[in-house]
Amino acid sequence: MGKERIDAAFAKVLEKGDKAFVPYIMAGDGGLENLREQVQFLEDSGATVVELGIPFSDPVADGPVIQEAGLRALANGTTLDGVLQNLSEWKESRSIPIVLMTYFNLIFSYGIEHFAARCVEVGVDGLIIPDMPMEEEDMVTPTFSEHGLALIRLVSPTSPKSRIEKIAGSTEGFLYAVTVKGTTGARSKYEEGLSDYLQDLKQFSSAPVLAGFGVSSPEQVRELSSYCDGVIVGSKIVELLASGKRQEISEIIQAAKVSETII
Ligand SMILES: O=P(O)(O)OC[C@@H](O)[C@@H](O)c1c[nH]c2ccccc12
């Protein structure tokens, strides 16, 4: 359950010599009734874990593409409870681990204990809570560990070294290495020093290190994942899924499969 399922999914990919690929999608964008099929498509295309966003009215770290997806999902009535209910309905047929990306407010108003128990019940394996600083995480960690849920921590290029060490040492499932200063969204250029930053993180983290924010093309997937264990792609996947360009999504995901290209 939970953390172990995530660990096993990464181990399988990395032992093969491939890089991990975590696509982000917004739950309820395109209708919650299509979530199952969307996740199945991502799994069939070669995703390692799916990061599922819960729409929220005040998404402080989201860039424009994800904000709009959130507004579409809210407009068609998507709620945290509805997403959890939906996940429970096809729990048995799902093998890819699910990580929920949600702001803390939603968890807090749901009730931390109730939320964690419900996550386990519906087959959620881990959580990303981007607005929960390290100093506050004691509010959730005892409950999450008791339920076997992984808390995936984020570091950014602006985090001081001592902070990076602590966060990287305590993360579960994987370490989310934010590649840029700013919000989510595709970018054409990366900041200087990114390869050193990603390679350094490997020293501090026993969990896989994945780079996210601004990754959108197969070339970027190949480049960034060569410095770490894999990538997270959000905005580009959200945009392509909404416009039905699934072949392009598969190509982006396939770029992480390096073992097949090295002969
Ligand atoms: O969209 P991008 O630039 O590809 O970045 C991934 C990101 O969207 C996804 O992981 C995410 C969506 N909302 C977030 C909020 C905080 C951290 C991460 C996220």
Summarize the structure.
With 263 residues, the protein is an alpha/beta fold.
* Strand segment tally: 8
Radius of gyration: 17 Å
How much beta, percentage-wise?
5-15%
Global structural class: alpha/beta
Q: Bound compounds, please?
A: indole-3-glycerol phosphate
State the CATH architecture: Alpha-Beta Barrel
Shape: globular
Count of individual helical segments: 12
Q: How far do the termini sit from each other?
A: 36 Å
The overall number of domains is: 1
Pfam family, one: Trp_syntA
InterPro entries: Aldolase_TIM (IPR013785), RibuloseP-bd_barrel (IPR011060), Trp_synthase_alpha_AS (IPR018204), Trp_synthase_suA (IPR002028)
Function: The alpha subunit is responsible for the aldol cleavage of indoleglycerol phosphate to indole and glyceraldehyde 3-phosphate.
GO molecular function: tryptophan synthase activity
Can you put this structure into words, describing what you see?
InterPro entries: Aldolase_TIM, RibuloseP-bd_barrel, Trp_synthase_alpha_AS, Trp_synthase_suA. It catalyses: (1S,2R)-1-C-(indol-3-yl)glycerol 3-phosphate + L-serine = D-glyceraldehyde 3-phosphate + L-tryptophan + H2O. Tetramer of two alpha and two beta chains. 44% of the residues lie in helices and 14% in strands. With 263 residues, it is of the alpha/beta class. It has a single domain, classed as Aldolase class I (TIM Barrel). Strands 1-2-3-4-5-6-7-8 form an eight-stranded parallel β-barrel, surrounded by seven helices. It starts with a helix and ends in a 9-residue tail after the last helix. The mean pLDDT is 94. The site of indole-3-glycerol phosphate has 19 residues, from strand 2, strand 8 and helix 11. Indole-3-glycerol phosphate is lined by residues 24, 51, 53, 61-62, 66, 101, 130, 184-185, 212-215, 232-236.
